[in-house]
Design goal:
With 187 residues, the protein is of the alpha/beta class. It has one domain: Rossmann fold (3-Layer(aba) Sandwich). It has 6 helices and 7 strands; from the N terminus they run E-H-E-E-E-H-E-E-H-E-H-H-H. The mean pLDDT is 96.
Length: 187
Amino acid sequence: MKMIVGLGNPGKQYEQTRHNIGFMVIDELSSSFNIPLTQAKFKGIYGLGVYNGTKVLLLKPLTYMNLSGESIRAVLDYYQIELEDLLVIYDDLDLPVGKIRLRQKGSSGGHNGIKSTVAHLGTQEFNRIRIGIDRPQPGMSVPDYVLGKFRPEERALVQEAVRKSADACEAWLKKPFIQVMNEYNVK
């Protein structure tokens, strides 16, 4: 079974914010894979299904970003999913809006959701898709920026990044992550 996790914050006030781009990808996958998110357990909402012959679990942790690892660890343990079958999708301040980057390991880069995930998994070695949200303008705090909505001129780039990330997830169901990474990380 493959497990795809999108990081974000629960609640109406956080919908469509920069920090919730991981949730946006899970919503896209839920729709395109026809796997509804109907299960509320393990401090998250998730759906189980089969897509192109592969069992898939889609998860949105509902712990708020800083505790995302709690939900991820609980689901991994319950379903006995191996770390190499985990893919985590999240926002990245160090990439331009709309740019995606796939990695197999690495530090949290200051991202609290990834810090929590690393702490609960006990390793930095897990597959991820980072989606660029850019940095705030001078004078704006990072929390205000990441919890803010995308500007109108950014929306097309964000939609494209969400679609491209969903495509990369779909490719990962058929190919090794390293191969998908090489295809999607082209400049």
